[in-house]
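Figure 2 data, in text form.
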Amino acid sequence: MQAYRPIMPHTASKIKINPCLFCPSLDLHYLRTTIQDNGMIELTQEELKERLSDKIFHQISETADELGVECYVVGGYVRDIFLERPSKDIDVVVVGSGIALAEALAKRLGKRAHLSVFKNFGTAQVKFHHTEVEFVGARKESYQRDSRKPIVEDGTLEDDQNRRDFTINALAICLNKARFGELVDPFGGMDDLWEKTIRTPLDPDITFSDDPLRMMRCIRFATQLNFYIDDETFESLCRNKERIEIISKERIADELNKIVASPIPSKGFIDLERSGLLALIFPEMAALQGVETMNGRAHKDNFYHTLEVLDNVAKQTDNLWLRWAAILHDIGKPRSKRWEPRIGWTFHNHNYLGEKMIPNIFRRMKLPMNEKMKYVQKLVGLHMRPIVIADDIVTDSAVRRLLFEAGDDIDDLMLLCEADITSKNAERKQRFLDNFKMVRQKLIDLEERDRIRQFQPPVTGEEIMEVFGLSPCREIGTLKTAIKDAILDGDIPNEHDAAFAFMLEKAKKMGLRVKSEE
């Protein structure tokens, strides 16, 4: 990876190199804030005490002092105090028994406290009002190469901080009365917060090899916090990437979804691709990267185009599955790519091919095989329709059919399609966006008039069978389809009487007779 270092996104902000050098078409605006205010606040011990003024912290402090044990609030809660990010989950490390402190605290808090003990893991949880506190005894860990489950022994605070994944998550604040609010930072986590850096406390090769899920967490934190990954840490990601194979697909999917749900998710996918992890966990997406040239004609890099679409969607919505639709909207392009001498590069039917690929992708990656998957499939399958309409004369018939097929997901589909317009030709881009406005207005007008969004056949199959004295047969489906098409084409209104009259006329041409006429 040495050859790529000058232009890697995780180093670009440090060395003041344009991060778009490795992909001019992608606006990597996620790096802008790294040269602005770093979003971190500095706090004295007295100010930290104020941040821990909630009753629960003082109850923990008093309980720990009564038991004669040291205790510290650690990890993400401490990190987020300095980043001024909301954090509900509180982790407390006890130099001694975490379960014993949790049990004593729950007794002190009374009936309103709910205690859960997990003896196999040596942890306990206390829920009090809307606050959850997780307790664990300080420990040191060692790993076997074929497992991410550690061998655990009792340890000191230093041992416990050594086992933390990143320096910014190894910060601890003492809760004992004599040292209440004292920050313990053995690895320079505060400096890394200030520098917006993700770095491991110890040798990253050991950190990532011991628990390879930390590689996903490394990229996830960098994405969520808009931090850059320390060079040595990133190079270790590249060296240890194959270790991800021992991690369950469910755990990987959980981290990946957090990357997708981040404010600017493209950052995470670039780091996943540059480290080599993407090809291992999501090969279909990795296959999007690259530009092929034939006779001087090249297609766009569909990987970076996809990231641009994803970021465009992320600006508009937190809908995780709409973001997944953005990720997968062109997933069928590598398999559908063809060179046609008179036209150039084509990707015919890539939307339908992508729609068919989604169940296997979701199944392998342990993503939900339910209505969420079907929603993503629908949007991927339909995402070319509004673009085709907007590139031509916007007819009522075409818009009606689009509304019929998209149903209640029409607004999400339109958002995805507008995000998909990434052309660098300003005039062409504006023409598409103007036409999309026209399509949106027609959708509103036609829905008010024709009620297509939740279309129900005005003449049912049962009524057709009754009128013509038919048993279930092909002719019933033919009539229903003809009625639907006539409504969508605007030949008849979406009303029973008009549809019934149309059915009688169509049936007559098919040689069907009304039962009373026989």
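Caption note: The first strand starts at residue 70 and ends at 74.
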